[in-house]
Structures are given as C-alpha cells and as structure tokens.
Amino acid sequence: MAKILDGKTLSRKILDNLSEEIAKLDKKPHLTVILVGEDPASELYVGLKKKAAEKLCIKSTILKYPQDTDEKTILDKLEELNSDKDVNAILVQLPLPKQINEKKVIEAISPKKDVDGFTPENIGKISIGVEPYAYPCTPKGVLTLLDEYNIKLEGKHAVIVGRSNIVGKPLAQMLLNKNATVTICHSYTKNLADITKTADILISAVGKNKIIRKEMIKYNSVIVDVGTSKIDGKSAGDVDFENVFESTSYITPVPGGVGPMTIASLMENVLKLFKLA
Ligand code: GUN
Q: Whole-number mean pLDDT of the chain?
C-alpha cells in the first residue's frame, strides 16, 4: 500500500524547530535575495521565501531589478553584499534574463554566503564528498524527506529525470555520496521508460505534467516528484499521481511534497551560514 511522503508536515516541524532556535539569538540572520525581471513563477517563489523568513524572524531583503538590467549591475551588487557584514546569506533567483551570464553571477557569490549551494566551491565540495557551506535546497529537501521515512539509499538504483544545475546534477552527487547507484536521464535520453522501470527510487525534475506514467515505473518503488507546472491555474507535478499511486511504496504529492521541503532547507541553510560568519 502506497504511503505519502508528507513534505508539508515535515517542513512545519523543521521550521518550528528553527523558529525556537532563532528566537534565542541576540542578532538575527539576514537573507538578501536578488530578483531580476517579472517572471511570475520567480516572483511567487521569492514571495514564499520572504514569508518563511519573516515567520522565523530572519531579516529578509528583496532587491528587485528590471528585466533589462545589465550584468555589471548585478556583479557590482554582489561584490557589495559579499563584504557587507550585516548580510550572511545571498540568493540570486534563477533564471536570469538572457543578457546576464548566470554562471558568472553564481561564481561572483561568496561561497560562505551562498545559501543555494550553487557556487563552484560548494558544488565541488559536494562532488568530492566534503561538507559544503550549504547544500542546494531542493536536493537537500528530497534527502531529508526520504530520511524521515527511513528510506535507505545504499545500493538502491536512483533514477533522476532532469539534469539541471539546481536539482538533477547536485542531487545525483548527493545520492552517490549515500552509496546509491545513480542514473541521470534528460531530454536526449533514448528509451526513457526502459530506464525509469529499473528505478528503486525515481525522482522527476522536469516540469512537464504527467510525463511519468504508470507503465514507466517499477512496482513498489519510491517516487519523488520535483516537477512543477500549472494546470488550470493549479500547481501540478511531473507524475500521473492518481494512476501511479497504487503501484508505489512511497510517493510525494504536488503540492505538499518537495516544494515545502525546499523552503525549509533554505531556512536551515540561512541559519547554518549565519553561524559560520
Ligand atoms: N529557481 C528555481 N529554483 C531555484 C532555487 O532553488 N534557487 C534559485 N536561486 N533559483 C531557483
């Protein structure tokens, strides 16, 4: 019988614990977010991050820039934030407009303030199995959720669909560090279903509704849905949840699965970086 991996409840527990810990601090952590342009999804995510920070008494500053902002403006601001003693966590919301080189911007964030864990130093640490200053929030949230339900990773075949720098690639490294056997699939992968059917743990991070269907999964596997898309104004995942549900051992819902875990992980990272400073 399938069980729900309830990210909503676990994230609340994490946030409650963080709230108690932060309440005891004399000085509060400070998260600064850079948001460029008017992408509605990015505005929504940044709004959720700000709300979560406020609830925990984490100071948050959102720096909003117009769509046509040039790269130098952002790089100069990052230089300023890197040396600002009052700021301990920096997040540049992605994607950025096309005139701005995303990789250059990420490289310009001080690794000790890199709350997303996206800088080459943090990603490099993860890939050699060293603790980074911060782990990328969505992969960290996924692993925390699996751990809460005692889902063991050692020797399991974990298949990730999607190779983004935000989710797929760092998650693959983190699963390898936990001794899983990892396969990454992407848009050029041939015979996707043949691979997904061999997954003990299938993680989809594509953003296309119902690309993971019942005939693509192994019976009794664990399904983690990182995808978000909008169907009739409602958020929807990558997995055909209703038809897949009975064939799984554990499955995340959308919403209420990985999404809230990402926010909880971000708040954990803010506190971790604050303690480092
Ligand atoms: N865009 C989508 N997800 C993320 C994330 O986790 N961090 C940042 N900075 N941008 C994103």
A: 97
Q: What share of the chain is helix, strand, coil (3-state, %, to 5)?
A: 45, 20, 40
**Taking the C-alpha atoms of 38, 225, 153 and 18 in order, what is their torsion angle to the nearest 10 degrees?**
50
Check: CB of residue 259 under 8 Å from CB of residue 141. Answer: no
- Spatial contact of 201 and 157, defined as CB atoms under 8 Å apart: yes
Cβ–ligand 1 distance for 266 under 6 Å, the answer: no
Q: Catalytic residue at 93? A: yes
Is the entire prediction scored with pTM above 0.90?
Answer: yes
Catalytic residue among 6, 77, 93, 113: 93
What pLDDT digit, counting tens, does each position of 59-97 carry? 999 999 999 999 999 999 999 999 999 999 999 999 999
Residue 152 DSSP class: -
Regarding the beta carbon of 173 and ligand 1, being less than 6 Å apart is answered no
E strand spans, 186-271: 201-204, 221-225, 229-231, 234-236, 248-251
Catalytic annotation present for 49: yes
